[in-house]
What does this fold into?
Amino acid sequence: MAKGLFTQGIVVLLRQSVTIQEVAATIDEFYPSDAIEASEDWTFLGPAVLMDMDEDGSGKIVVDIVDQPWPDSMGTSENESEQDEKILAAWGLGNFGPHAFPGSLERACEQSWVWEGGKTLGNTAPAFIRIRSSYVLGQDDDTPILPEGYEPFDELALVTEIAAAITELPQAICYFNPNGEVLRDLQTLNESFEYAEENDFPPLDLWSNVRLFRLENDWATMDTVGNAQLDLLDVEACFHAESYDFTEVEQFLRLVTCFLEESEEAIENGDSMEGPGDVIWKVWQLEDSIVSPPRPVLRCLPQDGREVPPQYAIADLAGLSSEQPSGAPESGPESDSGSEA
It folds into this structure.
């Protein structure tokens, strides 16, 4: 999916529901509007407040309460009901995040390396709060989805700040970014903010997760998920698992993301850079990733003399894949790394 009616979307999972007045009091510094009644369709809008995203008021942030568990299947279950059809349609419109994909919460739990509690969270929250941004709410039909000079970084930072404030509610379980498949409790959320501020580094770990999956033949892949929120490609590294330090690979993926954000020159297929293990790594842009969610990625392969399994190899320097992988890796995710980038 792509950005549309909503351009960013972050969630706070709740152990029990709250009133919109309680939410408004928590985010008072962002000047929320008076309460807005819920629509008949909960997938679109629960009890809500609005806030201006910019001085001219053209961009809006809507915060609403949903008294339903997070619909992790996004209505794609095998036995679709009328409710599933409603959720599926809402997902297609970006109501649960413009880049959310079915199973995002399940994968976020499996790959919750920074907050250990996330691994046992499951889909147990009975309610959640959405924080979504939009440039077309209340505007004319011909209003562009994205304004001229659109900057996703500042927009996502503001949505994140509001979500962090809401996470201080006693009813809040955790911060959940479904687009980046990230889970954080209040403590690790604040630690990430402090780390970013102290190191003059964007809080990428709150926006995109770095995941580890074991592949066949002692190979592994690590990838980012969620860079699309910043209009950037996700990055995946495919490598022999016993030959590289996972923390070094994680840091490498973050550095490549920063390069994509800051560089005025595009990365070309076959470009190389020094990476983990003091090895030269080459990169190619591919239309599909090794692991869900399906999305375009930059695939990084070490030039260490090892023969790359054919399903992950690149056919030539033009960036064509010799065989696009189908399905998930044979083995489930596991990691020795819990470090932050």
DSSP finds seven helices and twelve strands in the chain.
